[in-house]
Structures are given as structure tokens and as C-alpha cells.
Design brief:
- By secondary structure, the chain is α/β, with parallel strands linked by helices.
- The chain has one domain: TIM Barrel (Alpha-Beta Barrel).
- Helices cover 40% and strands 22% of the residues.
- The chain contains 15 helices and 17 strands.
- The strands form 5 sheets. The chain has a 7-stranded parallel sheet with strand order 1-17-16-15-14-13-12. It has a 4-stranded antiparallel sheet with strand order 4-7-8-9.
- A hairpin with a 2-residue loop joins strand 7 and strand 8.
- The protein is globular.
- The mean pLDDT is 96.
Length: 389
């Protein structure tokens, strides 16, 4: 089977020849590329796809491919510029932005009839990652300006750009199409998680109205995307976890969006994935009731709280696909790494029982400090213990 066939078979509950091995190497790769620390074996690689092909892995893409979905503002005076200084001499790709060479700050502003909103992201050389240092929404007094932002913000799906990514991956895997995020995650990006929580507590009715505006725009985007033939899997980039998405907020600000999105996507025979980070056990029954097909990616203890063999039972949804298992504590093993990685993988695969609806993948991402040899050990173990037919 090809990588694409293997992944689709797993999502559909069919029996692939092997359990798909689909590590998320984007952060690991771009961090090492910028620092000049790629292992000699893959020193000529120019993109994560090159490394995944060298490993013989399945490509399940969502990072720089996500920019086929473009944020636009139809009213107001919007500006977007990069500044700051960085020693990185080539573009730095993160989960959220692409920084030009030697640039480390992204500043955006939107002048509205109710005042000007500003937003800043900062790329740190120490982590090779970026962080939102200044959210759009800093104080409740900016409510009317934020409402204007949501009413004027939209997304455009560049089908031609997406097709180019699909062609680049070919039969080696699948490119997931970004459908942006749920209303609750929209609030996190607008105000930060702390302020968003306080605004919900103090101004529930107004926040529900903002959620309806965002949901309407996001669902309209999905309606435009879902009939593009090359779009087979759609992903909401929500970082879903119970710390920032406790069940009561999921019910209030996520459930409607997810359920409606799933209905649209399933009506075309396609697959709905939501990105997850951290602790998901309390959310799995809600995820299943929303008919989300997969969380990318589930994390076992100690960093997470989901034992992968129990995930489908907890979700209670017959089409739920378990994605994960390669977590930071195992990826970064230093002592007797080959022996311990093989033992862990063998035990996990045995515990999974029926290995349909299972992708052996990263729990969110691959840490930059992961030794290259460990990725090779995981590949070898996945192929040895994951043969299904």
C-alpha cells in the first residue's frame, strides 16, 4: 500500500498492511534546520517531507501546508509587518507564522470605527518557536472593536495552493486542510486564555454572540472547502485539552461548531480531525458525541492522561481513530534507547488489540532534542510490530 492508502484505510477503519507511522517532525526539522544541526544523514533535506520519506514514514501534513487557508479582513485598515532581528538566515516556519530571514517579530493592527487593535508575535531563538506576546483583545472596553474584527474577518481557501502541496506529497501521504478553529480557541487567540475565561465569566451573553459570529464564518469556509476533490481530511487547529477547554466550556463554545462541521464534512464522505495537546481524557466522550473522527495526537501519562488502548471506548464513537503514542518522554530516551523504544512500542501495539483506526504518531509534536537515532528506532519498531497483513 502507498502511504496515502495506508492512512485512509486507518481513518476508515479498514485493515492496512501496516499500522501507519506518521511522526509530526515539523518543529524538530525547522528548529534543527535553522540552527544547522540536522544529522549528517539528512543534512541535505530542505523540508520535513524529505526527512519523512527518508524514514519511510507516512506523511500526515498540517503545518506550512495550512497557509492555503488565508485570513483576510474585508473592512477596516489592516496592516501586517515583520521586524525584529534574528540570526536565522532562512525563513523560519512555525505552527502559526512564517518569519522572513533575520526577522523575529510579527506585528499586526486593525483600525476599526471603535479604535485600533494590535497583535504581536515574537520568535525566540532559544526555543525556535514563537509566542503571542500581545493579544488583539487586552481589555473588555475593546469589545466593540473586537466584534468589528470578527464581523469583518474571513478566510479564503486557495485551492490551487493546496493542490500544489497535495502534488508534492503525492502517494506518500495526506495533506490535511485547515478549517481554522472553534469559537473558544478563537477567544484564546483574541484575548489570551486567562482574559478569555474572565470575559466569559463576566459577560456570557456577549461572548455567546461573538461565538456565533465566528462559528458562522468558520462553517461557511468549510462549506467552500469540502467539495474540493483534493481535500480528503480537514483539521481544526485547536490544541484541544481539558486545561484550556474544560468540559463545561466545550459544551458552551465548541460542541455546536464541531457537530455542525462534522455533519458538513461527513456528508461528503470526508474525515474531520482536531489537533490536541496535553490532557484529553475528560473530553473524549464529548469529542465522540460531536463525531470528531480523530484527535491529533493523544498523549499517554505522564504528560497526558489518555491510555491509548482505552481511547476509542472513552470516545464512544465507532469511527474514532486513535492518533498518537510517540510522546516526549519516549522520544527523548537516552539510555538503552533502542531496547526501550522497541519494548514500549511492542507493548503498546499488543495492548491496542484490533489495530484498525490506529495511527502511530507524535503526541502533538516531536521535541527538538529528540535524537535522530530514536526516530529510526521508532520507525523500525513500528514496522516490526505493526504488520497487519
Amino acid at each position: 500500500m502507498t502511504g496515502r492508502e495506508r492512512l485512509l484505510a486507518a481513518f476508515r477503519g479498514e485493515l492496512p498492511d501496516f499500522v501507519p507511522f506518521a511522526p509530526n517532525l515539523y518543529y524538530w526539522f525547522y528548529n534543527r534546520l535553522a540552527r544547522g544541526t540536522l544529522p549528517e544523514e539528512i543534512a541535505s533535506a530542505e523540508h520535513p517531507f524529505d526527512v519523512l520519506r527518508h524514514l519511510g514514514a507516512e506523511i500526515l501534513a498540517r503545518w506550512d501546508t495550512q497557509y492555503a487557508t488565508e485570513e483576510i479582513f474585508t473592512e477596516g485598515d489592516y496592516t501586517d509587518e515583520f521586524g525584529g532581528e534574528s540570526r536565522f538566515d532562512r525563513p523560519m516556519v512555525t505552527a502559526f507564522n512564517i518569519y522572513p530571514p533575520h526577522r523575529s517579530v510579527r506585528r499586526r493592527s486593525l483600525r476599526t470605527p471603535h479604535g485600533t487593535l494590535t497583535n504581536t508575535w515574537v520568535l525566540t531563538e532559544e526555543s525556535g518557536a514563537d509566542f503571542e506576546s500581545e493579544p488583539w483583545w487586552k481589555d473588555w472596553s475593546e469589545y466593540e472593536a473586537v466584534r468589528f474584527l470578527l464581523e469583518t474577518r474571513d478566510w479564503r481557501f486557495d485551492a490551487a495552493k493546496f493542490r500544489r502541496w497535495v502534488e508534492r506529497v503525492g502517494e506518500d501521504g495526506i495533506v490535511m486542510a485547515s478549517v481554522t478553529f472553534s469559537p473558544l480557541k478563537a477567544f484564546h487567540w483574541l484575548a489570551g486564555a486567562a482574559n478569555a475565561s474572565l470575559f466569559i465569566a463576566d459577560h456570557l451573553d456577549e461572548m455567546k454572540e461573538l461565538a456565533r459570529i465566528h462559528e458562522r464564518k468558520a462553517l461557511a469556509l468549510i462549506e467552500r472547502m469540502v467539495d474540493v476533490p483534493e481535500v480528503e481530511v480537514l483539521i481544526s487547529n485547536d490544541n484541544l485539552d481539558s486545561a484550556f477547554h474544560p468540559p463545561y466550556l466545550y459544551r458552551e463554545f465548541c460542541a455546536s461548531f464541531y457537530a455542525k462541521a462534522a455533519e458538513i464534512i461527513h456528508s461528503r464522505g470526508k474525515i474531520f480531525v482536531v489537533h490536541a495537546c496535553g490532557r484529553n481524557k475528560a473530553l473524549l466522550p464529548l469529542v465522540g458525541s460531536s463525531r470528531i473522527d480523530c484527535l491529533e495526537g493523544l498523549t499517554p501519562p505522564p504528560n497526558g492522561d489518555v491510555l491509548l488502548p482505552e481511547a476509542r471506548r472513552l470516545a464512544g464513537y465507532e469511527n474514532f481513530t486513535v492518533n498518537g503514542g510517540m510522546d516526549a518522554p519516549h522520544l527523548e530516551i537516552a539510555d538503552r534507547a533502542e531496547e526501550r523504544i522497541h519494548a514500549y512500542t511492542r507493548a503498546l501495539f499488543e495492548a491496542m488489540g484490533d489495530k484498525r483506526h490506529f495511527l502511530f504518531a507524535s503526541s502533538c509534536t516531536t521535541p527538538a532534542g529528540t535524537p535522530w537515532e530514536n526516530l529510526c528506532y521508532f520507525r523500525d519498531a513500528a514496522r516490526e510490530y505493526g504488520k497487519l497483513c
